[in-house]
Amino acid sequence: MMWRMAKRGRLIVMIAVSITILLLVFGLSVTANGSTDGTTFKVIANITIGPGSGPWGIAYDSSNGYIYVTDDYSYAVSVINGTTVIATIPIKSWLEVWPEGIAYNPSNGYIYVADYGLDAVSVIYGTTVIATIGIGYGSEPVGVAYDPSNGYIYVTDYGSNAVSVIDGTTVIATIPVGSQPEGIAYDSSNGYIYVADYGSNAVSVINGTTVIATIPVGSQPWGIAYDSSNGYIYVTNFASNTVSVINGATNTVIATIPVGPTPMGVAYDPSNGYIYVANSGSHTVSVINGATNTVIATIPVGIGPIGVAYDPSNGYIYVANSGSGTVSIISTSAQAIKNSVIPQPTTNAVVVTESAGSSFSAVPIWAVVVDAVAIVIIAISTTILIMSKRNRR
């Protein structure tokens, strides 16, 4: 728990706020990136949540089309409609709540939020907290996933090395897993729950309420996502800068993919079969082609990206940038044409000529200088943050 407390230090917040102001004033000049397969990815909007808010987890609610973002530092959940924050839901408590993981339950329309500091799960309906579910002292819940086969919510309890199972608003079971579980995901092809055990460098496989397998992966696994097109599970390895690919049919690792520094959140896009990985250490998102298990593009986003989610209503990827207090929206070239109603960034507008795997732009010299200064400051802040995490884990 110590490193999570340290990451909220005033030094990091001050640096993040300073960088945010710098980028808001001058902007980063690169907005489009070509991939090795010819697809163009573009950050079409950056939604400001607020300096010091610390956007962390992110989820899509199919009942209203909203995106819900946990604000880890400001103890709240922001609600986004398209590109606009329409509500801020406080997670009220006399404790430091630190909401992190979040998931939507379509069977009842509820949003479930893992409140790390509260040892509880908040239940949101629409824009109101309707219940608080106690998990147990020292449980430190962080990850949340929904299982449509039984309607249960599965919550990783980082502090107690377990997974809590919630039916509606009641904890019905507690499942011991590996050390310090973080991310969690459901595999619809076999009905299993996969848990990234950060502290034991493994993934626990749960069938119902029983652990049926433990799969060794990379160092300090964090995020986890299921790809329905190939039946694979993708696991981000925080300390080894890789993604492990697990075949759900055999529960074995079939590939290890190098990505950016300190990968955390991960999400699957069924519209194109791509996997999106948030690299918190380089402030980028790696795009993996699930058909080849190769990185086809790297997209600059905000500072310290953590959570990633796919919005099927518009085909966009939403990225929670913890350090800059923003949410980046990523589209592909096809989506940008289809959904051209969303306003495009106008700051430092450039003419971009692209070919497969490359991106070129005419950029003023002063913009290049400002961007270089911003990148140096970002690198320093990230180094401080990541070293704090690794030393205090």
- Distance between termini? 7 Å
- Note poorly predicted spans: 1-31, 336-372, 385-393
CATH fold-level topology:
Methylamine Dehydrogenase, Chain H
- Looking at CATH, the homologous superfamily is YVTN repeat-like/Quinoprotein amine dehydrogenase
How many β-strand stretches? 31
Number of helices, where a helix is a run of at least 4 consecutive DSSP H or I residues: 4
Number of domains: 1
Gyration radius, rounded: 20 Å
If classified by CATH, what would the architecture be?
Answer: 7 Propeller
Please give the largest β-sheet.
5 strands, antiparallel
Shape verdict: globular
Task: Please give the share of residues in helix.
Answer: 10-25%
Strand order of the largest sheet: 1-2-29-28-27
Q: How much beta, percentage-wise?
A: over 45%
Which structural class should the secondary elements be placed in? mainly beta
Mean pLDDT: 83
CATH class: Mainly Beta
Descriptive overview:
- The protein has 393 residues and is mainly beta.
- The chain is 14% helix and 50% strand.
- Strands 1-2-29-28-27 form a 5-stranded antiparallel sheet. A 4-stranded antiparallel sheet has the order 3-4-5-6, with no helix packed on it.
- A hairpin with a 4-residue loop joins strand 20 (232-237) and strand 21 (242-247).
- Helix 2 (10-26) packs antiparallel against helix 4 (365-392).
